[in-house]
Amino acid sequence: MSNCAHTQMADIHEMNSQMELFSVFQPILDHHFNVMGYEALLRGRIENQVFLPSSILYNQSHSYDIALELKAIALHLANFAAQKSPAVLFINVSPECLLHGFDTMMTHLSYAIAQGSIQAKQIVLEVLEHAVCCEELLCMRLSQLKDAGFRIAQDDFGSADSNQARALRLVPDVIKLDQSLLVAARQGDSSLLEAAASAAKQINAQVLIEGVESHADVMLLKQFKIDFWQGYWFGKPTPLLVVPSQM
Ligand SMILES: [Ca+2]
Q1: How far is the CA of 129 from the centre of ligand 1 (A)?
Q2: 23, β-bridge pairs
Q3: Which of 89, 140, 188, 222 gives a 20 to 30 Å CA spacing to 46?
Q4: How much distance in Å is there from the Cα of 229 to the middle of ligand 1?
């Protein structure tokens, strides 16, 4: 195996001794359409077959594998830091991990920062939309992260438990709108997008739209105050940090 950072593999997945894990990074653009950051996404590989997080992070009893998620976080940090980029790194973290794996996650974050190639202010933790029993404790964890200099995003706003009530509790720096809001807007119903944008404004959060797939999407969204853009139109997830040339 190469020593290159982008080919660094995590430990062998407990559920499947054949699977190797690796990071891919999808570009995120600012309102001038310049790349400002990347979302780290997990992939698994067995020979030539690639697996998505939905089939990696859930075990056979369909519960979330927090230990594996923690390994993925460490993997993304190492692979991003090794590329010595000044860009922002968005990392997904489940509410379950924030509640039950917090100390280990903090250890991984502190270790990555101590290596000197990434700073806390470069890291945005995206809180997944999963429901949790204890939103109060979730808020406390996020306050600790903010105090340590990290920024918080609320992922997939408009799906599952990622809603306005959670936004008011968590007060994230960034709200990532669920792709279903864009899909509805394409079909002529912008009411969900408008509601989400107004929820973001209420807590002074920046708005990130995901799933942008065409120039028509960009034109459709121009009427909203979008701070950050992400989607195949701007760039697909790749192991190396790529600045898209075509826009
Ligand atoms: Ca995400």
Answers
A1: 9
A2: 42
A3: 89
A4: 13
Distance 70 CA to ligand 1 centre (A): 15
CA of 224 to the centre of ligand 1 (A): 21
The residues near 127 (Cβ < 8 Å, ≥ 6 apart) are 93, 94, 95, 98, 138, 142, 152, 153, 154, 155, 162, 170, 172
CA of 142 relative to ligand 1 center, distance in Å:
16
Q: How far is the CA of 127 from the centre of ligand 1 (A)?
A: 8
> Which residues make Cβ contacts (< 8 Å) with residue 171, sequence separation at least 6?
203, 205
Residues with beta carbon < 5 A to ion ligand 1? 92, 126, 155
The predicted-structure confidence for 96-149, as pLDDT tens digits, reads as follows 999 999 999 999 999 999 999 999 999 999 998 777 778 889 999 999 999 999
Residue 32 burial (CB < 10 Å; 0-12/13-18/19+)?
A: exposed
Spatial distance between the Cα atoms of 51 and 54, rounded to a whole number of angstroms: 8
What is the residue whose two structure tokens read 């997008």? 193
Distance 230 CA to ligand 1 centre (A): 10
Q: What is the pTM of this model?
A: 0.89
First-to-last alpha carbon distance for the chain, in angstroms, is: 35
Retrieve residue 238's tokens. Answer: 């790749």
What's the number of CA atoms in the CB half-sphere (13 Å) around residue 67? 6
Two tokens, residue 99: 């509640």
How far apart are the CA of 220 and the centre of ligand 1, in A? Answer: 22
Cα 55–chain centre separation: 17
